[in-house]
Amino acid sequence: MTTREGMMKTGIKWTRQGGTTACATLALILLLAGALPCFAQTAQGQPQDLEFEIINATSGEGAAASRMTIDYVTARRNNVADFEPTGSVFSAPGVPILEKGKYIITVWHQGVPYWWSKRGRDLIAGPVTLHVFDTVSSLDGVSFSGLNLVVRRQESLLHLEYMLQIDNQAKPQVTVTGSPATFELALPAGVSDIKASYTRGPDPTPVPVHSSGSHSGFEIPLTPGQNLIRVVAVVPWSEGMKIPVGSDLPVNSWSVLASPVWMVVASTDIEENDDQEVAGFRRFAGFPLEAGESVDLVLSSGEQVAGQEEDLFTQESPADKEAGEAAETASKGGGMTLPLILMGVVIIVLVAVVRRRRS
Questions:
Q1: Does pTM top 0.85 for this prediction?
Q2: Which residues, in sequence order, are CB contacts of 315 under 8 Å at separation 6+?
Q3: Which one of 50, 114, 195, 209 is least enclosed by Cβ atoms within 10 Å?
Q4: pLDDT digit string, tens, across residues 134-181
Q5: Which residues, in sequence order, are CB contacts of 85 under 8 Å at separation 6+?
Q6: Does residue 41 form part of some domain?
Q7: How far apart are CA 223 and CA 243, in angstroms?
Q8: Statement to judge: residues 91 and 152 lie in one domain
């Protein structure tokens, strides 16, 4: 049945203009009807009720989180959920999710943040199990697997950069924290502008620094496994200055990169490493250090100063120059040598003695 026939049977008067209007109205109604289920859809996805369970991996029991956030990751992080869960098993209602989207989940447990990267389809499939840990202050099982120090001299300042790799191998698995600091690092006298951050999460996180005397403490939670920390500082340059290396943690491996290449780094606890050259730097490898042990690196300008002194010593003095010219003249027969002069003096003396005896 055509639209015209249907309208005639229902007593609706048909005209060409009215028929066109009716068709347009019907098409609009059908279009809106198809779009109605999508009204809740947003640019960040369809709202979903997500199910989670948090487990304390230290005890194997359920754990509560004080806060949870969910961020949708594009060119930047877009927060789509921020709430306070109740219990170890809970639901996050109405979170917009794209099945192929990438998400960062952050959970705070006992004041420590933990991060996970998940796809939207994994969140939708749920429930999602997340593991956290008990916190302790003991440093047992914690050590530096790498301490890499970069020293750069720029005019009157020495710039320091520490790349720290700290392994937490404590058993059972726990997160190590401390008050006011988790661990300490030896820093030189007069150091300033100390800044620290760790990259355990998706972005570098600033770390509070507590300075006291020759050591600085860093307030950072060390989770099981490897923790990466970056520390930068500045200290005034002086000839023969000392840079200490050490910590209240064992240092299993450490190295030094020094720039410019003429800088001398002196210590009986390091050796130059030519196998791994870095352009513009001298590289040194250090011997392992025990917890609480510290060694001093003595820095000086090296070849830059020595080169200037060498120029002074290689220049000929006027006396040396004259002696050299006399020797060269004698070798060419252009003058009397010293032995001939002495012989002449001896002959004159002998003649005078003989004449005196005859008289």
A1: no
A2: none
A3: 195
A4: 999 999 999 999 999 999 999 999 999 999 999 999 999 999 999 889
A5: 52, 54, 64, 65, 67, 68, 92
A6: no
A7: 29
A8: no
